[in-house]
Specification:
By secondary structure, the protein is of the alpha+beta class. It has five helices and ten strands; from the N terminus they run H-H-H-E-E-H-H-E-E-E-E-E-E-E-E.
Length: 219
């Protein structure tokens, strides 16, 4: 469903306001990815695509704020093999840069864009959980490659409205299972502590004969 611009902006403002009522992600340790965080991220992505298509700096600014409010980042995971179905994502920094270009001659809007950019710089470079939407075809298998520091507390999870059709395995460099996926708040979550070898291979499988949309997230 494609939302009208007015509804999209209204929903974005509500999501930003609600996000301000919960503790910031940076204040939590190994914060799980909550439904609110995913909602903010998805709405920020949709609004960002709209703003880019319409050359709308206000929409781009709001989209960047939403993405920042979610505490999430685009995933840097490597996909092993076919990248079909991997949804292209925007990031807040590029949205703000484009918004600034489009807002030339609008000093009040430029001030808001500069304020949004400066707020991020003042908080440092702490990276929150990473997220990636994927449309998986029937019986599709997606190997995902990750790397961690020794002793790092790690997690990998999946959110989808078709969780019953998704299987997940997380294995180390010797093909040893690192964790047992379990349901956590409607999501499928796997948590472990990284060993000396940094490489981890995650395999996500669509067990269904229908396409399934999911979002995977990890630290």
């Amino acid at each position: 469903m494609i939302l009208r611009p007015q509804r999209l902006l209204a929903g974005a403002l509500v999501a930003i306001a609600v996000g301000g009522l919960v503790p910031p992600v940076a204040a939590q340790t190994a914060a799980p990815v909550t439904p609110l965080m995913l909602q903010q991220w998805r709405l920020g992505q949709e609004l960002g695509r709209y703003g880019l298509a319409q050359n709308d700096p206000q929409a781009l600014l709001t989209a960047a704020r939403l993405q920042r409010a979610s505490g999430l980042q685009p995933s840097r995971a490597r996909m092993d093999g076919d990248r079909g179905g991997v949804v292209q994502q925007t990031d807040a920094a590029s949205l703000l840069a484009q918004a600034k270009t489009l807002a030339q001659g609008k000093p009040e809007l430029l001030a808001l864009i500069d304020e949004a950019s400066a707020a991020r710089r003042s908080r440092g470079t702490l990276i929150g959980p990473q997220v990636q939407p994927v449309l998986m075809g029937a019986r599709d298998i997606k190997p995902i490659l990750l790397s961690y520091k020794p002793g790092q507390k790690a997690f990998f999870g999946i959110a989808s409205d078709r969780m019953q059709d998704i299987a997940l395995s997380v294995k180390g460099p010797k093909n040893e299972p690192l964790c047992e996926p379990a349901q956590a708040g409607g999501e499928l979550l796997c948590e472990w502590v990284s060993g000396e070898a940094p490489d981890v291979r995650v395999v996500v499988t669509n067990l269904s004969t229908n396409a399934v949309m999911l979002t995977f997230f990890h630290d």
